[in-house]
TrEMBL record:
GO terms for molecular function: copper ion binding; ferroxidase activity. Keywords: Copper, Metal-binding, Oxidoreductase, Signal. Residues 28-143, 152-299, 365-495 form the Plastocyanin-like domain. It comes from Sordaria brevicollis. It holds the Pfam family Cu-oxidase_2. The keyword S-adenosyl-L-methionine does not apply. Belongs to the multicopper oxidase family. This is Cupredoxin. GO terms for cellular component: high-affinity iron permease complex. Residues 1-19 form the signal peptide.
Length: 594
């Protein structure tokens, strides 16, 4: 039976760690919800929304049996921040490490929770997660170094929220008329998927807050009246404690901090959360009032007034997360074997559609998921040509990679790497320009994260060890920019991926969807170096996660990709667009161009 059943069970892998297998059965379904008073269909789990929190402990194995009960869309889940050691096929991105899960089908995810921390999960199927399919994933640490410093913990999620569904939002965005590359602008901000949240605090107690930013677009600021934050973790890295007064979390980032309800506390304290619309962050006073803000409350005394002001914040000076020190004091990895430099700019494709380019090219989905290509083209899998235009970067197992991102646009972008946590050697100030092309004095004890915000017209320098064979995406975590192509693919340890086997249920979903599982990006198993049939221009008709049966889908985008769609694909897109009310005002606000 598919019920929300969480069986903490079985198997002691080792008597010391007492690791468990945590099994969860999920049916992904449409649900009607009105988190801010505006009703709309959202994507939930087991007919409920908000989606459930997953909680387990480090060393556990998590099994999620996922059934797609959506009827009209495909799906797939990414476990954000989880390393997926030896299980790259469980990482989730559809079309890259697995095939989309068709409606009526199931897929099993099974992987080790190798590190403690605050994580989250979200759909990684086209632009689907802003429709609601995301939630917290907490991995508890029996050996938490801060154990004893807090009494209880709470989760605070922040998210931007849209009244329209993702598919029409992206269709509007991916139009030649969108000459300013504007993403959809959110209608509101949600805290714990609600409005008007109150957290009951007991005087004398200290709380661990796990802040998760589940935004599709906007970064959030956080400030709590009269209560400084003792930082203990960013993403899944324990920090040396440091006091912060304001935080800035970009999409996908997490912060853990302690706040104490000290004895002098009486009354109620506002916690202000505001979406950041100051696009380049160069000048904190450029956007003094943040129209999408929400006041949550730390409630000590329900009968006391809820009146303390929050609009006295006119300058946001959040703590600089790249200056936080990791608790383990790990030094900067001293040298690197492989330099990867990615220049990000918006760009237009041959059809005049707005895209986001890395080194001049947007990521374009291919016919065969890249991990399947890596497994099936033999020794040719070290040749980037076989993967098609997914911005492939081949990295040898064991190499130290220095990854430089030059942001050549006028807004900050949060970049996320799957399968790793990287050291942030440098994150230059806004308008610092490109990386100078040589190493400078870097932070000797850099913070480690899986997502870093790179400021406008500036750069960041990251280092990591490639010891996790797989295909790992590196992308901007603004979901709308992913749909524009702002993604590169690390093909890590290709030698180790040759001949890799895939679970039968994963392969079955490929069969149902008509997705080839062998050969190069175009499915050529005879000559992997023959690029015929690879997709080189994104289709002009965007159908997102809309389910299109394989018969209706063929022939798909062939050759150079300009035969953008079959009649069935066009029909499906038209129907999807028509069903959902379009927001004509979408690009109305000229101040908010990112
Ligand atoms: C999933 O939920 C849908 C919608 O409620 C229902 O029709 C379907 O039978 C469920 N499937 C399973 C396998 O539980
Ligand atoms: C969440 O991330 C978005 C996108 O980067 C950012 O604009 C917003 O400020 C973040 N929210 C919080 C509370 O940090
Ligand atoms: C920041 O913007 C404000 C408002 O436009 C302006 O008055 C101020 O001079 C700017 N500061 C800097 C350092 O550019
Ligand atoms: C919060 O939003 C309101 C309404 O848009 C605005 O008047 C106020 O200035 C905002 N507060 C902050 C601190 O940005
Ligand atoms: C790549 O594949 C071609 C065609 O099968 C083959 O002739 C060639 O030897 C392969 N190259 C490598 C480096 O394995
Ligand atoms: C794509 O191919 C078609 C037909 O083969 C051709 O007419 C068209 O000019 C090509 N477009 C581009 C941008 O290469
Ligand atoms: C799928 O079904 C949902 C719920 O009925 C609906 O809102 C949506 O427009 C449908 N179409 C697509 C393409 O999602
Ligand atoms: Cu971006």
């Amino acid at each position: 039976m598919w019920s929300l059943l969480l069986s903490l069970a079985l198997l002691c892998f080792s008597p010391v760690a007492r690791a468990a297998v945590v099994t969860i059965n999920w049916n992904v379904t449409w649900v009607w919800a009105a988190p801010d008073g505006f009703g709309r269909p959202v994507i939930g789990i087991n007919n409920q929304w908000p989606c459930p929190k997953i909680e387990a402990k480090v060393g556990d194995t998590l099994i999620v049996n996922l059934h797609n009960g959506l009827g009209n869309q495909t799906t797939g889940i990414h476990w954000h921040g989880i390393n997926q050691l030896q299980t790259p096929e469980m990482d989730g991105p559809s079309g890259v490490v697995q095939c989309p899960t068709p409606p009526g089908s199931s897929v099993q995810y099974k992987f080790l929770l190798d590190e403690p921390g605050t994580f989250w999960y979200h759909s990684h199927e086209k632009g689907q997660y802003p429709d609601g399919l995301r939630g917290p994933l907490i991995v508890q640490d029996p050996n938490d170094p801060y154990k004893g410093r807090y009494d209880e913990e709470i989760i605070v999620t922040v998210s931007d929220w849209y009244h329209s569904q993702s598919i029409p939002l992206v269709q509007n965005m991916l139009s030649p008329a969108n000459t300013r590359f504007a993403p959809p602008f959110p209608d509101t901000i949600l805290v714990n998927d609600k409005k008007d949240v109150k957290f009951n605090f007991v005087k004398g107690k200290t709380y661990r807050v796990r802040l998760i930013n589940m935004s599709a677009f906007a970064s959030a600021f956080l400030w709590i009246d009269s209560h400084p934050l003792t930082m203990i973790m960013s993403d899944a890295t324990y920090l040396q404690t440091e006091t912060a007064y304001q935080l800035h979390a970009s999409s996908a980032q997490r912060y853990d901090f302690l706040i104490s309800a000290i004895d002098r506390d009486s009354g109620n304290y506002p916690m202000l959360l505001a979406l950041d619309i100051n696009r380049d962050f160069r000048n904190a006073s450029l956007a003094p009032a943040f129209p999408h803000n929400q006041t949550a409350w730390l409630v000590m005394d329900e009968s006391a007034p809820f009146t303390r002001p929050t609009n006295n914040i006119d300058v946001w000076r959040p703590a600089d997360d790249t200056h936080f020190k990791p608790l383990d004091n790990q030094a900067m990895i001293p040298a690197y074997d492989h330099l990867v430099k990615l220049d990000f700019r918006f760009c237009l494709d041959a059809n005049g559609y707005p895209r986001a380019c890395l080194n001049g090219k947007p990521f374009i989905s291919q016919k065969v998921p890249a991990l399947y290509t890596a497994a099936t083209v033999g020794t040719n899998n070290t040749n980037p040509i076989v993967y098609g235009q997914i911005n492939p970067i081949i990295v040898k197992k064991g190499d130290i990679v220095q990854l430089v991102i030059n942001n050549q646009e006028a807004a900050g972008h949060p970049f996320h790497l799957h399968g790793h946590r990287f050291q942030i050697l440098d994150r230059a100030r806004p308008y610092a320009g490109d990386w100078p092309g040589r190493d400078v004095n870097y932070n000797p004890t850099p913070n480690k994260r899986d997502t870093v915000t790179v400021w406008s017209w500036s750069h960041a320098v990251l280092r990591f060890k490639a010891e996790n064979p797989g295909v790992w995406l590196f992308h901007c975590h603004i979901e709308w920019h992913v749909e524009m192509g702002l993604t590169a693919s690390f093909i890590e340890g290709p030698e180790q991926l040759r001949g890799k086997q895939f679970p039968a249920d994963h392969l079955e979903n490929c069969r149902i969807g008509g997705v080839p599982t062998r050969g190069n990006a175009a499915g050529n198993t005879v000559d992997p170096l023959d690029t015929t049939g690879m997709v080189t221009i994104s289709p002009t008709v965007y159908t997102g996660a809309t389910w299109i049966p394989p018969a209706a889908n063929a022939p798909t985008t062939g050759g150079n990709g300009t035969s953008t769609s079959s009649p069935a694909r066009r029909r499906a897109a038209a129907v999807a667009a028509e069903r959902i009310q379009r927001r004509e005002t979408l690009f109305g606000d000229s101040e908010l161009v990112f």
